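Suppose you are handed a protein chain with no further information: no name, no annotation, nothing but its sequence. What can you learn? This example shows the usual starting point.
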Amino acid sequence: MDLYHQRTGAVYHLTDLDRLRGTAPTKLILLAEPEERERLHSRFSRELEGRAAVTRSEPEYLEIMAPGISKGAALPAIARHLGIATEQILAVGDADNDNEMLEAAGIGVAVANAREETRRIADFVTESSNNDGAVAEAIRRFALGGNTS
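A reasonable first move is to predict its three-dimensional structure. Written in structure tokens, the prediction is:
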């Protein structure tokens, strides 16, 4: 919990998970050591197939969401709200939870240190693995039409 708070600034409250029975939460984040997270990802992906979306983000994060809840589903909704086409959107990501968003965007960009599958899905992979530098590189190349070298 402290790791999540340090990274996000989110305030958390301890609760008994039984209190959530019968509710429909949109997202659950489990934090575990990377090896354990991989084991849980395999297990929950199988056990929850069709009932929940299971994905990974930070090395310790396992995210479980309601079916149809993802950055990829949100991107067209945001485009409609803004009155633009998804083809006009540049999206930058680094992990599994970004994959659908990168596919939905007009230009999907993965940072150099992204997971292998995320780099494979992307239209472009930045040279910089520094998040600020990676985003700046993508903006210069695609939004401003400049040279990234």
